[in-house]
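Hi W.,

Here's what went into the run:
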Amino acid sequence: MENPRFPKCFKISSKPHKFCPGCGYGIILKNLGWVIDELEIQKEIILLTDIGCNLLSWDFFDFPTAQTHHGRTVSTAVGFKMANPQKTVVCLIGDGGGYAIGLQNLIHACLRNSPITVILVNNTNYGMTGGQFAPTTVDKQITDSTPFGKDPKILGKTFKGPELLKGIAWEKAYIARGSTLKPEILKNYFKIALESQKRGDFSFVEVISACPLNWETDAKETLERLEKLEEFFSQGELK
Amino acid sequence: MKKFAMGNEILAQAAFDAGAKIMFGYPITPTTEVLSTWIKLAEKSGRKYLQTEDEMAAGFGVCGAVLAGVPAFTATAGPGTILMQDPLVMAEALRLPFVVFIGQRGGPSTGQVVYSQQEVNLAIYGGNNEGLRIVYSSSGLQDLYTYGIKAFNVAWKYRFPTILLYDGYQGKMKGVVEIPDKKLKEVKTEPILTKNMRNTYNLEEELAEEVLKAKDEFEKNSKELIEYEEFQTEKAEVLIFAHGIVSSAVKEAVKSLRKKKIPIGLFRPITLSPFPIKKAALVLQKAKQIIVFESSLGQFSRIIKEKIYWVNIPLVEVFKPGVGFTPEEIEKTVLSLLT
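Here's what came out:
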């Protein structure tokens, strides 16, 4: 059998990766890897990860990476970029890190148009801790901490990050939402986001992704749920 | 060259002279003028600053900048010191040269914004780790300049988070300090994030190994790091332990008490961490009485008791939580204790 073709910037010694079977991170990181190869920025990129499943990518790539604390990746990235503007700085964070505990840091980085790229993975739950409610959990969704279904009267509306950021982002900032169901489109969003950073602007891509382990879905159900989520979280470039 | 300035202004100048390139700050009394002074200094010289949305963003901004190999710092106090634990913990784990000036104010909660010595615990042991931090306690304006500079040099040399503890009195006080005429050599730095840096472990044993390694290095370097001040300790039968600005008041009291032929001296740890254990034990050899003065309910005294636990000398503690001491009252207290 032929070996699978990996992006050049992958660290082969850390494969197979550490994510659960069926997790969307593999698709996300692979497409990010292709874009890094295409843009030939492996020598100038650094990746910062948060707390949550994304930290499993701490040694995924063959370029400098560091893992920060919950919700603090964006602030660390802002500091790094100020210190070394020549580097391309990417944050990989989850929906808890970005929209709950780290939301104010994300908002202010966007308000200031900090020239960093934030990739936020929205799988509608806290994956690493065992599938609890996240700001992105949809109404009636069963999670570990909403065992009777998410009730918006208690927990509020489902959070839509790109729509919020669109209202405060600078004119040339880039805001998009893609999905692991459409990797080609997602890859393009990553590319535009990184190019946007190069021009000196803030860029943000939310990715709708699957968490079959905590969703307790098989392959077919996972795909069906992703399709539904794609409808609920409208896809495309918001800015 | 002599300069007349406020304590917080002196700290900004010290960071500037040490070669710091960026300050991340969130305004909080009594440290705010560190940020406002730095902004003016930075504007004139092409250095950078960012007023962040909270202290965590300021602290993680420092983490990010030092990962890139650029000396950066922040200043905070009170509730901000609590939020600063999050980045301090990361800095301790990743051995980042993190520098923070902490201007202690009275707790609990928002408390008062004037003065205290109640952030000793937070400075050394505030994190979910083992307190491998270098902590200086400044006793006056000249110290703010000296240790403000030193903080950067030791942080980058030994790669432990470095804290300069001061307080609202020192921060807001104005006075004369001596600063060098010539430009100082800037702190030596290098990029830190050059590979996959690990900050997460699968097994207890993996993490324990890292922590033990760091602890070992901390202890090995302690000899070089430890600083203290002795004042009239020769033949001192009564030894006062004090740190920070309280030690400055104690000094005045000791001078006056010595004139009254009382064999008294002061031992002041400048580094609260690592603590000058051996030296403290040495000066205690002839002592018959220890007195501890501090503006908290024993955060400093607890360290002394832990570090010199084997010393069999009576120890009296004089605590005023968040309240300062005058030399006169120290003298009076000592005299009443000795009779």
